[in-house]
Amino acid sequence: MHVQPEMRFYVEIVISQTIFMSFKSLGLSDALLRAISKKGYTTPSPIQAKAIPLVLERKDVLASAQTGTGKTAGFTLPMLQLLSQQPPLRKRPIRALVLTPTRELAAQVYTNVKEYSTFLDIRSTVIFGGVNAKPQIATLRNGVDILVATPGRLLDLHSQKALSLAKVEMLVLDEADRMLDMGFLRDIKRVIELVPKRRQNLLFSATFSKDIKKLAQSILHNPVSVEAAPENTTAEKVNQTVYRVDKPQKTELLIKLISEGNWSQVLVFTRTKHGANRLTKKLIAKNISAAAIHGNKTQNARTKALDGFKKGTIRILVATDIAARGLDIPLLPHVINYELPNVPEDYVHRIGRTGRAGASGEAISLVSAEEYEYVKGIEKLLGEKLPSEEIEGFEADPNYTPPPKQQRPQRSSKKKSNSSQKGTSGGGQKKRNNSSSNQSSNSRNSNTKNSRSRRRRRD
Ligand code: AMP
Predict the structure, then answer these.
(1) Do residues 326 and 175 touch, judged by C-beta distance below 8 A?
(2) Which terminal residue of the chain, N or C, has fewer Cβ atoms less than 10 Å from its own Cβ?
């Protein structure tokens, strides 16, 4: 249809007014609306639409929001509005504290805070471990209204009297489930003792285990619960597939999928740091640009790898669960589970890296016989069956039986799978085994109970 130039102008004005109104209807100030429009957001995401008005009413909020739903703006925008409504205190004590489990997530939340406060007189900073504390201390001494922090560095600098939490009015626990998984419960409790009793609390979590509910009960006062997506479900537009394949053939299958699909940006998950290094080396040897991101890497190496991945100079980012947590890579098209996590909730987090903010994505799991039990756990959590296929030339050996599990305490399994390498040519024909079918979602949370006891510190 041909649209007259004047008409197009009119249409654009109408559209931009609609956009402006929909964020405005949440009660956000003009300064924030300008910042939002600069970011290019059109409409509030469901979690934003639900959480923002409640936070503005100074309610405690318990939000169930999976990664990629826009939850950061869901708490940052109203926080900025509330803080900017009062004139800044002379010495700029910390009035809002955001706790995150990982350095990357802290850096990301801080970036968002900076962007949304462009037109406000609000000072903020971020502190996390793995980097020199001196510049962080210097910034804190000048005073900040908002502090984004990981628990370890926060307590460290507090014990050095580099910061005070005595004037905190708002406390945000972001990705609280991951904080518990990473063993931060004690640190969180210590932080709670350092902040004033009267304060507003916001707790965001992708999954809701009993432990999280218990934590919420002990921290939040009469919270309002909001939910952006049903508990423990995966992003709607993610196509999930399991490829059954023997362990020794995984690398070749991965390379085939990447090369034949001509994929330019793939996040690959391994279970261990050493596994991530090994796979990265193999990919580089095949001239596929790759970098590993995990807890043994320095913060600089992690930042460099992530930047390269975002810019497109690194095609494959190989990550462990904890390192990848909180990574914001908009519109990531492909996530591959080179190995499945033994904790089903991690699967949800992993594939939350694709299909972000409403875009569609693909999550592929390369599953060997050793991991079939993990598939069952994931399906139970999701309340649905994952479609399972084989790629011609990479079929799993039906007679293969996984070696018995090794006794702990071995840190890494030296024993290799005993199945032999197969031919790898193959035309790539898929053999579908079963199709996805929705089952009752009642079983979603039934698997969360023992997840923490099953978890190993991998990062
Ligand atoms: P988060 O869940 O906060 O990590 O956000 C995931 C991604 O969605 C980030 O890249 C945000 O910049 C983006 N985002 C947040 N809110 C919106 C919105 N209302 N419209 C479009 N994108 C958004």
Answers:
(1) yes
(2) N
pTM value is 0.61
Atom index in ligand 1 nearest the CA of residue 326 equals 4
Max Cα-Cα span within the chain: 74
pLDDT in tens, the chain (459 residues): 343 443 333 333 333 333 344 888 899 999 999 999 999 887 888 899 999 999 999 999 999 887 678 899 999 999 999 999 988 778 899 999 999 998 888 999 999 999 999 999 999 999 999 899 999 999 999 999 999 999 999 999 999 999 999 999 999 999 998 898 888 999 999 999 999 999 999 999 987 888 888 999 999 999 999 887 544 444 556 788 999 999 999 999 999 999 988 888 899 999 999 999 999 999 999 999 999 988 788 878 888 888 898 888 999 999 988 766 656 665 678 899 999 998 888 888 788 777 655 556 789 999 999 999 999 999 988 888 898 989 989 988 877 776 666 655 544 444 333 333 333 333 344 554 443 333 333 333 333 333 333 333 333
Element containing residue 388 per DSSP (H, E): strand 388-391
What's the CA-to-centroid distance between 110 and ligand 1, angstroms?
A: 14
**Strands 388-391, 430-434: parallel, antiparallel or unpaired by DSSP?**
antiparallel
Given ligand 1 and candidates 72, 172, 348, which is best to mutate, with the most ligand atoms within 8 Å of its CB? 72
Task: Kindly list the structural domains of the chain, giving each domain's residue range(s) and its CATH number in brackets, ordered by start.
Answer: 5-227 (3.40.50.300), 238-389 (3.40.50.300)
State which ligand 1 atom lies nearest to the alpha carbon of 39. 12
Expressed in angstroms and rounded, the spacing between residue 314 Cα and the centre of ligand 1 is 23
Single-letter code of the amino acid located at 132: N
Atom of ligand 1 nearest to the CA of 44: 19
Bridge partner list, 438:
384
Is the bond preceding residue 387 a cis peptide, omega within 30 degrees? Answer: no
Give the atom of ligand 1 at the shortest distance from the alpha carbon of 74: 3
| Helix, strand, or coil (residue 98) | strand
Centre of ligand 1 from the C-alpha of residue 233, in Å: 18
